[in-house]
Automatic annotation (TrEMBL):
Biased composition (Low complexity): 100-125
Superkingdom in the source lineage: Bacteria
Pfam families per the UniProt record, alphabetical: Csp (PF03860)
Lineage: Bacteria, Bacillati, Actinomycetota, Actinomycetes, Kitasatosporales
Native source species: Streptomyces apricus
Protein name from the UniProt record: Ferredoxin
Alphabetical list of InterPro entries matching this protein: Csp_YhjQ
Ranges for region Disordered: 99-130
Length: 152
């Protein structure tokens, strides 16, 4: 094996691990965001919850696939990682919309550094946490894109 081939293999493994790690971290963040959404809330809150749960499941599955399945073909990896990236980007849009809508709602202090108490939009799946969750979504999608660039 040449030095170049060895370097490519190391980069492949490093990016595969980085993608799996980003998926794990994001799955946790997404599950948390989904758990904050009110079950009987508005349609937006239900959408945040559904997307959060879906994204957590897809990211968790992608992480396990990348971390545990060493004999997978590149085609199988590509499909799973592309799906993960797509779901992350869609979820980021939902979370960003939730953050934007809560900032415009009357009497909402979310995102202003205040202590969001019971009954506020922060407790219902909207608010400043949505912005951080959206950023985590995009970070995971970026890690997926980086890894996809290595697959042939």
């Amino acid at each position: 094996m040449s030095v170049t081939e060895l370097q490519e293999l190391v980069r492949f493994l490093e990016d595969r691990f980085a993608c799996a790690q980003a998926c794990t971290e994001y799955a946790r963040a997404c599950a948390l965001r989904a758990s904050l959404a009110d079950l009987d809330g508005t349609e937006e809150q239900r959408l945040v919850r559904r997307k959060g749960i879906l994204c957590a499941e897809v990211c968790d599955t992608t992480c396990r696939l990348l971390a545990e399945q060493v004999t997978l073909s590149e085609d199988v990896m590509r499909v799973q990682v592309e799906w993960c990236r797509t779901v992350c980007l869609e979820t980021a849009e939902v979370f960003e919309k939730a953050a934007g809508d809560s900032g415009r709602s009357a009497g909402s202090d979310c995102g202003s550094g205040s202590d969001c108490g019971s009954g506020s939009d922060c407790d219902s799946g909207s608010g400043s946490g949505s912005e951080e969750s959206a950023l985590a979504c995009r970070d995971c999608a970026d890690a997926c894109s980086t890894f996809l660039s290595l697959l042939r």
